[in-house]
User: What shape does this take?
Amino acid sequence: MRLLLIGATTGYQTRTFAEAAERLGFELVLATDRCHVLEDPWADRALPLRFEEPVRAAQAIAGQSGIGGIVAVGDRPAYIAALAAEKLGIAYNSASSVSACRDKFLARQRFRAAGLLVPDYRRIPIREGPGQPASFPCVLKPLGLSASRGVIRANDPAEFAAAFHRIARLLADPDIARLGDEQDRFIQVESFIEGREFALEGILTNGSFRALAIFDKPDPLDGPFFEETIYVTPSRESAEIQRAIIETTEAATRALGLTHGPVHAEMRVNARGVWILEVAARPIGGLCSRVLPGLEELILRHAAGEDVATFRLACEAAGVMMIPIPGEGIYVDVAGLAAAREMSLIDDVIITAKQGQKLMPLPEGSSYLGFIFARGNDPGAVEQALRESHEKLEFQILAALPVI
Assistant: This one.
């Protein structure tokens, strides 16, 4: 079986999927955002794509022969994959459904039309300025960025105006502006949703939804920013709440029009029920997939057309901490790494920040210092192990000098 993987050249998951494909005996063709001028700079024989030109990228993929399935890692690659799959006649989500996943305004419209719980929302053209929201507290967010990037809570008019202009500056960053997405001309304002936050990993097969794992997010995410830190599975919530999370996510995938491929969903739960925040047409991002051993194999087998209905992921308790960046600066070093790795139940501690790298926390930033992984028999013990391991780490970050 010849499969195509669309993902970032330097993405952790790109390498993980390549390793899984080799174990399974699949031929994996990579399509990445590497430079198209240099002659195979990464020595991976990847097809070079311009992610900012999805139609041309899809046409380049359609010119490949013998592709039997497509996997995408990331929101933009998922859209390119949908366009390419349509040209190749390969089972995948429609381009319109993936496009709705990538636009918080379109997603909210479809969720509301389907009768799902959604907050009050509206989008404001950046050129018009902030104006005033109907009520406080509220949350401002870009329509297209992921991982809580640019998401800010405001409790009064002054905070609202400051948040609006801060997000506008972020969207004007050349790395974002060059992509030319229409949705980046707007900022969405939503009423704040009280409650506990969860994530769900699932997979769709010709419209049939299957939940693979539910993650608790034990740290409160109440703002002003919404940096995710800990994911733990299996969930410790009641069977009733877990069932409601699964049913709501399934309804959300139908509302978006998703039919085939991996799904990563985020939601909040309170006394009124389950509020879907986002549904992405891709698997959980980055190194976090290590929490679910076998996930890449399942996705590859699924893309190859195999029946994965009986394929089960590891059932033991597991968790990951995405190590937050405490403040802007230059990364120098970390102490206590050996001690953190030696803690009970800890699988590994991986520092992804590089010496000399400029660090930027949320809401502008889009990365973490690294990841801590734990595994055991009890999700509560796994969560505690992650916290205790993190306490052993001491990061040295120097203040960055301003550019004059």
Q: What stands out?
A: The radius of gyration is 21 Å. The chain is about 30% helix and 30% strand.
